[in-house]
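pinned: reference chain
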Amino acid sequence: MIIRKMIPSDVAAIAELEKVCFSDPWSADSIAYELVNPLSYWLVAELDGIVAGYVGSQSVLDAADMMNIAVAPNYRKRGIGQALVNALTDYLSKNNVIALLLEVRVSNGPAISMYEKLGFQQVGKRPNYYRNPREDALILRKELRK
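pinned: its structure tokens
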């Protein structure tokens, strides 16, 4: 597996993963904008030339928000999501970001478990944050500097 920075030719594959993985997917145009957004940093996990997963973040001052993360269903349970989060936190910590925050559906047990294993802690809850279906989000935070 190769984890690398997102490039323009990845946009279509990421847009397809968005459709497969989420009920409210980002458009290809929204994903493409992240390539030119100076606040954004996106990574892809590539296996045999295929984009198997991705993670995206936006940083403002010394804090970052994980915007999106997904792994293709046929590539799950191989540590790809964990590798993407670790690569992202490594990059952010080397670039003066002290904390990474994210929202996760309260029903997404596998993701919550992974985040807790990686050192994220719940710091809040957003009622009705998600739509399709409507659901609360947990707000998780990881300190990148001790």
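why pinned: The CA atoms of residues 128 and 135 lie 5 Å apart. The chain has a mean pLDDT of 95.
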